[in-house]
Amino acid sequence: MKKTKPKIKSSWDYLKPQNLKALKDCNIIYKDAKAFYDKKEYRKAKEHYLKFLEINTADFDTLIEIGICCHELHQKRKSLHYLLRAQELRSGSTLLKSSLYKVYAANKDWKNALDYLELLNGRLKLSQIQKLRKETDLPKRFK
């Protein structure tokens, strides 16, 4: 398949009538990707998200979900890449912050991991934060 430049690179591109077909194509691809993602078939989901990103690089949810797929597939650098791209679009998401915490913790980058964990205070219940800490084997010196 020949690589083409993405048609949708910003939220303004959603408003352009000439991108209507691209948006329709994205919706079909996203539906398939999300179905695989929901079934935790991360490799297949990632393939579809990559097709989506060939058309649209400005979709927050796609960037988070492909970042999570990469994390689940132990592709730490790629995961961080996509999650940070999502953060450039919109930084307020609890899912994004918890995903970035997990990726930084997996990389044993405790400074950044703890920064994101701190940002989750007040957004998550204490039990959810404790569960996140437990999932990532946060060293005792940081607990």
Describe the structure.
Helix content is 66%, strand content 0%. The chain has 143 residues and is mainly alpha-helical. It folds into two domains: 16-90, Tetratricopeptide repeat domain (Serine Threonine Protein Phosphatase 5, Tetratricopeptide repeat); 91-136, no CATH class. It is built from seven helices and no strands.
Question: Quick summary of this structure?
Answer:
With 143 residues, the protein is mainly alpha-helical. The chain is 66% helix and 0% strand.
Features:
143 residues; Serine Threonine Protein Phosphatase 5, Tetratricopeptide repeat; 2 domains; mainly alpha; 7 helices; single chain; 0% strand
Spans of at least 5 consecutive residues with low confidence: none
Label the CATH architecture of the largest domain.
Answer: Alpha Horseshoe
Q: Please give the count of helices.
A: 7
CATH superfamily descriptor of the largest domain:
Tetratricopeptide repeat domain
* Overall 3D shape: elongated
List the helices and strands and how they pair.
Blueprint: H1 20-38, H2 42-55, H3 60-72, H4 76-89, H5 94-106, H6 110-120, H7 126-135
Helix pairs in contact: 1-2, 2-3, 3-4, 3-5, 4-5, 5-6
